[in-house]
Each structure stands twice: as structure tokens, then as C-alpha cells.
Amino acid sequence: MYPSFDLTGKIAVVTGASMGIGYGLSKALAHAGAKVAVTARSVNDLEKLVAEIAQEGGEAYAVPLDVRNVGEIQEVMNRIQKHFGRIDIVVNNAGLGANHPATEVTEADWDSMMDVNLKGLFFCCQAAGRIMLEQGYGRIINMSSQASVVGIKDHAVYCASKGGVNQLTRVLALEWSSRGVTVNAVGPTFTYTPGTAERLDDPDYLQTVVDRIPAGKVADIKDVAGAVIYLASPAGDMVTGTVLLVDGGWTAQ
């Protein structure tokens, strides 16, 4: 009768988990009851995260994964499935961001961002989807951005990549939802992390951002985690093919 946000017994995978939003999401999923496979390019970067989750009573498993290496994605997902017995939730968080005036974008700039933000994300969806469709159950959550639905100056490639994430999310939801696998995206606004602190700790820069956010503040990782846990939980069973914006009202204008 009442919605449940409990993830006890679920197996979650988080890509790009070694820092920032991915680090926080991994801890939040574990706090909600999930066992979490955390991935990044180097397992060494994940040791602190695994230890912290264990100290808080959770369970985490570190696996190296560079999402630019498409050939290893299915192998890693299969390894996680073998370790835990199944995969219930995948959060495709690995991503790149950069500021380039459109006239200065190089082919290398384009390829490096698309390889991670869109190509790598798709093949992670595919690899996880194969496992989940066989199980008849799964929750895929793709990290998008408010920049997927509004333009932001000097972010042509980033906006294009995140717009692509939204479209992939919709198509995969259409293909897989009838077989028990929901696919959604979460689109945060500017979010305070160790990686964004250099810019957001600048009062002038922060003010230019906050002026665009009706809520009057930037997001915190817990704000993003709340959306992810909702979509991963039984409470989100009927939500699929949507982009849940955690933007403080930025895109309402």
C-alpha cells in the first residue's frame, strides 16, 4: 500500500565511482541496503570507498572498468554477476565535462567526450541489459544533466552528449520495460563536489550560477542520490523512459 525505497538484497553497479557524484551515489545505495559493485579505471582509487562502505555496515566490490574500452564492458558486467549472483541496478555515472567555445572544439575533444558520455554509457546499458532481460528484472539509471534539455554556452559537445543520453534512455525504455527492465535518467544542475569546488567556491562564479536557479542554491550529492534511489527502488516501478531533473527549477524558466 505504501511506497518502499528499501534496496535491501539488491545488487547495484556504479560506474565512475572513484570520486564526486559516483562516490556519493555508491555510499547512498549501500546505505539504502544494496550491495554495490563500484567501478573506475583503477581499483586503487576505489579502496577508500570500499572501506568506508564496509565501516558503515555495507558491502562493496571494486572492479576496474574504463568505459572507453567497449570490449571489456560485457566481461566486467558478467564478472559482477558471477560475484553477486545477479545485477539489479546499474547507475551509468562515468562522464566527462569540459568548456570549449564551439569554434575551438577539436575532433579529439569531441571524440573523448562522446566516447565516455554516450558511447561508453550505451554499451554499459547493453551489457547490463542483456543480464537484466534474462533475469526479467532490472533498473538502469543514466546520469544526464540539465544541459541535456537547455543550451549552455561553451558546452556544445557536453550538451550534445547528454541530449543523446536522454534519447538512448527513451528508446531503451521502449524496448525493455515490458520485460521488467526500467530505464531512466537523472539530470542534475550544478552540483557541489570536490571536482566542482574550484569553480563553485569562487563567490562571483557561484552567484552567476545561483542567479539561474530558482531554489537559490546549487545541488548537493544527496539531492542527486535521492532521485537515483527513488528510481532504483520499488517506489519507482512505474517510472520508465523519463528524465528526472534535479535542477532547482533551472529548466522551468
Automatic annotation (TrEMBL):
- Give a single Pfam family match: adh_short_C2
**Residues covered by the Ketoreductase domain:** 10-189
> What family is reported?
Belongs to the short-chain dehydrogenases/reductases (SDR) family.
What name goes with this protein? SDR family oxidoreductase
